């Protein structure tokens, strides 16, 4: 559909922007949610914001929305839970469905899927609470919760003695953690809109590690579009991202995080089914580079619920 066709279809519909939520990425989701809400209000559409809590089903009924625009991050928003609830309620929603959301939120399952279709992903082991710690032959490793986002609970571990603290931190957020080979290289990310890869963003975090602070603090990291990597790696990354969109059966949008090492190998870390949507987030930056302003990007995402 063209942008004007989408707008026409939205004419007699009430859109509920679902933001906030119950995960540790709540504050980020509020920011994204407000940005989406503002743009829809500016377009004079019938829209309301709904801060998601345990009473979400009642709120939705009270507001009588026809479409849900989901801008939630992390567990209970990006993992298929809200998506499942909306399916039961018969309310169309934006973006990825239950399977894509659940599979992408679980980094262990995701990595098995990447591997299965020949996408490079760093070697890893998983560890559940109270299980014996597997032998770590080579440091550094990355320790992270299986189901989280925004680099919450993630640590670069350089030796055995640092491991315990890192594992404790990751276990705060999940019952299962990942111990993954550390890949030294350039961090990139690529959004996929309706199956087609957007331009790659190169990420240069100010402090060296792309942690929570450098993700969300003003000036915390630099976005370089297009990313400065070889043509071969660029193509490979876009190719892998489109493959991820396809095998995870994504809808409308996803964003795939990767690292390009010094041998030009492209390692896929994870898939995000509800990428950040503040005006300065990665995907809106990528969209702008191919002529989608923030408003049109939001409308293209809404199209998936029509
Ligand atoms: N295997 C790895 N090697 C190097 N850096 C990594 C690795 N895994 C994660 N990181 C770093 O940690 C950040 C967060 O990890 P990621 O897997 O993207 O989880 P999330 O973004 O969901 O928290 C990445 O953006 C990257 O900077
Ligand atoms: Mg990530």
Multimer state = single chain
What proportion of the residues is helical, as a percent range?
A: 25-40%
Unreliable segments (pLDDT under 50, ≥5 consecutive)? none
Number of discrete helical segments: 11
CATH fold assignment of the largest domain: D-amino Acid Aminotransferase, Chain A, domain 1
Top-tier CATH class of the largest domain: Alpha Beta
Bound small molecules, by name, code or SMILES, are:
adenosine-5'-diphosphate, magnesium ion
- Output the helix-strand order: HEHEHEHHHEEEHEEEEHEHEEHH
Task: Give the number of DSSP strands.
Answer: 13
The biggest sheet amounts to: 6 strands, antiparallel
Named at the architecture level, the CATH assignment of the largest domain is: 2-Layer Sandwich
What would the principal axes of the Cα set say about the shape?
globular
The name of the CATH superfamily of the largest domain reads ATP-grasp fold, B domain
What is the residue-averaged pLDDT? 96
Tally of domains: 3
Spatial extent as radius of gyration = 19 Å
Tell me the span between the first and last alpha carbons: 10 Å
Give an account of the 3D structure.
The protein is an alpha+beta fold. It folds into three domains: 3-94, Rossmann fold (3-Layer(aba) Sandwich), CATH 3.40.50.20; 103-120 and 183-293, 2-Layer Sandwich (D-amino Acid Aminotransferase, Chain A, domain 1); 124-181, Dna Ligase, domain 1 (2-Layer Sandwich). Helix content is 37%, strand content 24%. The protein contains eleven helices and 13 strands. The protein has helices spanning 3-10, 26-42, 56-63, 81-89, 98-105, 107-116, 160-171, 212-216, 231-247, 282-289, 294-303; strands at residues 14-20, 46-52, 67-70, 124-128, 141-145, 155-157, 176-181, 185-193, 196-197, 201-205, 221-224, 253-261, 266-272. The strands form three sheets. Strands 8, 9, 10, 11, 12 and 13 form a six-stranded antiparallel β-sheet that branches. Helix 2 (26-42) links the parallel strand 1 and strand 2 (46-52). It is globular, with a radius of gyration of 19 Å. The termini are close together. The model has no long low-confidence stretch (mean pLDDT 96). It binds adenosine-5'-diphosphate and magnesium ion.
């Amino acid at each position: 559909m063209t942008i004007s066709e989408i707008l026409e279809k939205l004419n007699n519909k009430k859109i509920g922007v679902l933001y906030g939520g119950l995960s540790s990425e709540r504050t980020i989701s509020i920011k994204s949610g407000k940005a989406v809400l503002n743009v829809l209000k500016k377009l004079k559409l019938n829209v309301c914001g709904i801060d998601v809590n345990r009473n979400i089903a009642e709120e939705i009924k009270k507001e009588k929305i026809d479409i849900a625009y989901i801008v939630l991050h992390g567990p209970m928003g990006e993992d298929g839970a809200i998506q499942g609830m909306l399916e039961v309620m018969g309310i169309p929603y934006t973006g990825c469905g239950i399977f894509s959301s659940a599979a992408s939120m679980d980094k262990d399952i995701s990595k098995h899927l990447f591997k299965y279709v020949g996408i490079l992903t760093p070697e890893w082991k998983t560890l559940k609470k109270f299980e014996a710690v597997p032998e770590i032959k080579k440091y550094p490793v990355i320790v992270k919760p299986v189901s989280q986002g925004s680099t919450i609970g993630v640590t670069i571990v350089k030796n055995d003695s640092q491991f315990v603290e890192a594992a404790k931190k990751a276990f705060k957020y999940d019952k299962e953690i990942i111990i993954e080979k550390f890949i030294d290289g350039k961090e990139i990310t690529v959004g996929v809109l309706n199956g087609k890869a957007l331009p790659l963003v190169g990420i240069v975090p100010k402090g060296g590690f792309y942690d929570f602070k450098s993700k969300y603090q003003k000036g915390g990291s630099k976005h370089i579009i297009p990313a400065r990597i070889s043509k071969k790696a660029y193509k490979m990354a876009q190719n892998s991202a489109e493959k991820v969109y396809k095998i995870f059966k994504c809808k409308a949008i996803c964003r795939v995080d990767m690292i390009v090492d010094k041998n030009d190998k492209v390692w896929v870390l994870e898939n995000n089914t509800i990428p950040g949507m503040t005006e300065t987030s990665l995907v809106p930056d990528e969209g702008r580079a191919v002529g989608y302003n923030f408003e049109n990007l939001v409308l293209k995402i809404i199209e998936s619920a029509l």
